[in-house]
UniProtKB/TrEMBL annotation:
The lineage of its organism: Bacteria, Pseudomonadati, Pseudomonadota, Gammaproteobacteria, Lysobacterales. It comes from Dokdonella fugitiva. Keywords: Membrane, Transmembrane, Transmembrane helix. The chain crosses the membrane at residues 14-36, 42-62, 82-99, 105-127. This is Uncharacterized protein.
Amino acid sequence: MFRDYFCAGTTPRYWRLTALLMVLYLGGIALAFVFGPDFTTAGARAAAALAPVPPVLGFVALEFRRIRATDELRQRIELEAATSALAFGVPLLLALGLLDGAGIVHVRMIFAAPALIGIYLVAQLWAHRRYR
């Protein structure tokens, strides 16, 4: 079941690239949060803060390649899941940002991406069940 929902179109090469990108991402996070504040110039701090972004973009490209390698039904499921995640995730993050701006709750934006990924996974389960 898990393979049907989340692993359609994966290959051993996909998993190797995913592992490499995750290692690079964790290194970028360490650079951004552990070492980044110690840099003296603004440019070095900015480069350290943005270090996690290239691995994330690599993962996005990898996902597009995986989805394009699947059949049309799977592509439709992925499109519905991504659209649903966007439709539910953006208003949720907007509301949390506005509440944070008003001083009601304190939300760190580092949690925005995991929240969107979680919404996407739930939307993918929903879309997959629609086409069973």
